[in-house]
Every structure is written in C-alpha cells, then in structure tokens.
Amino acid sequence: MAVIELPEAINLAWQISKELKGKQIASGVRGSSPHKFAFTGKHSDEEFAAIVKDKTIGTARADGSVILTDLEPGYVLSLGLGGERILYHTSEKTLPKKHQLLLNFKDDTYLTVTVSGWGEVRLLEQSEVPRHPHIKKKAISPFSDEFTLAYFNSLFDSLPENKRVSAKYFIISEPGIWGVGNGCLQDILYRAKIHPKRQMVTLLSEERRTLYDVIKQTLNDIIELGGRDNERDLYNKPGGYQRILHSKTVDHPCRECGTPIKKIQYLGGAAYFCPSCQAE
Ligand SMILES: [Zn+2]
After folding, report:
1. Cα–Cα distance between 261 and 263 in angstroms, integer?
2. Distance 132 CA to ligand 1 centre (A)
C-alpha cells in the first residue's frame, strides 16, 4: 500500500494551495463510506458538514506526512499521514464511488479523499493545531535550515547507550527523520549503502555524513519529480520518481553490483536491500 510521506505531502500541499485556494465550500460530506482507521478527531459527521459549509480554502502546508489546509475563517483541515488518495475533480464524472471526504465547491469542482489502511480526515480549530496528535511539536523537517549536519550528528549523541538502534528504527521511529516512513526509507538506505538492521552506533563519521547527504538528496529528488511512482498527485498523476527498491525488484539484480535484491520483514514492514552493497 502506498503511503503519503513528506515529499508527497509537500507536493500535495503546493497543489492544494495553487488549485483550491479561494474556493468556497458549498457542501462537505465525511463518512459516506465510514472507515475504521480514518482519524477523524472530535467532530461528528453532522458537525463536520455544518462547520465546513461556506468556508473558504486557504493555504495548505505539510508538517511531516500531514497536510494542513486552512479553512477560513478559523479552521484547519488535516489530511494525509497514511494511505490516502487526495484528488481534485473538475467534473462529477471522476468522483470515486467510495470516499471518506467529499468537498463540493461553489464553482462545481470537487475534492475527494479516499483512505486505504489509515489516514487523517480531521477538522481542527486554528488554536488546536499545536495539540494535533500526529504532529510533533519540535520536529525539524529535513528541508528546514535547522536540519544541519551538526543537528543530524546530535541525533546519534542522543541515542541511549545500552539500547541497540538499527538504521531503520533510527530513521522512521526514534529519533526519526520527520515525515520519512518505510517508503522513502528503502532508497535512502540503499543509496547510503546501509543495511536496515545495521546498528547505528557502528556508523563511521563518513557514513553519517553520507547518510545525511543521501536523506536530503533523495527527498529532494522525490519532490522535484512530483512524488514516488506508486503515489498519485492531486490530479491523479503518478509521481515521476522511480523507486530503486520495492516489492517488484526482489530477486532482480542490484543495479550497482548485480547481486539479487532481498526482502525481509523487519519492524512491522518490508525491508528491501542489496546484501552485497548494504552489508549488515
Ligand atoms: Zn548491490
């Protein structure tokens, strides 16, 4: 299942700001197809519909893998986080049959959100955003100026001495790179030549430097190409970033050395790697 991560969230936020800003909501329906793992917050579907009616779309921004869109005045719509398809429609004809959110704008265009797996369709008051349950207060985005090599090295210093922390855990859990999940992780570790189970205390300073550069470079490449190839943008167009490692590359030769790519289940998800380039 494809899951929105930071580069896709940034891309979708740009597109929402560009395409939808200024549009006024004629009606908003959540829960035409109720979903167990849609994180919906405190409002009932009826309250949701009453609040969003006549609101105007403002600016959207990404915070990690969450997309926050201002609903003016006073509210914020929170999307993303998981496996979501967030689509803009200029005609009724392309509306999906099942969806967890349908916004009908007064100019007869639409936004739909379909959740697969889990995801956010949450309404918040502006003042509640700092207490958003899926946003870390002090998270530093890998795209921010604060994401320096010194900051990245400080993450290693913060590792508990007696705890074994693997590369995968380090990047997607604790301390974590904000917005990076099990999807972007695969190519990051491949490009850095680090095994998903590699203990982070064993990384040499050059390897830390490489990993730091690769995180920034990989996320940047994904953004520039409009997302990963298994994700869709606001216009239902697949991203242009061709993933190096994914389920279909298992047993195929590594493009660097020819060794067959392996797959393991590790920390609640698949991990793909080249056993030769990424020695454990
Ligand atoms: Zn290889």
Report:
1. 7
2. 41
How many whole angstroms from 190 Cα to the centroid of ligand 1? 8
Q: CA triplet 209, 213, 219: central angle to 5 degrees?
A: 150
* Ligand 1 centroid distance, CA of 13 (Å): 35
In a domain, 154, yes or no: yes
In a domain, 212, yes or no: yes
Query: Which DSSP symbol is given to 43?
Result: -
SS3 content of the chain, % helix, strand, coil (to 5): 30, 25, 45
Question: Ligand 1 centre from 61 Cα, in Å?
Answer: 37
142, part of any domain = no
Q: Two tokens at 9?
A: 């969230």
Domain span at 260 = 149-273
pTM above 0.90, yes or no: yes
Report the CATH number at residue 70.
3.20.190.10
Paired sense of beta strands 75-80 and 84-89, if any: unpaired
pLDDT digits 0-9 by tens, 216-273: 999 999 999 999 999 999 999 999 999 999 999 999 999 999 999 999 999 989 999 9
In terms of domains, do 108 and 215 share one? no
Does residue 141 sit within a domain? no
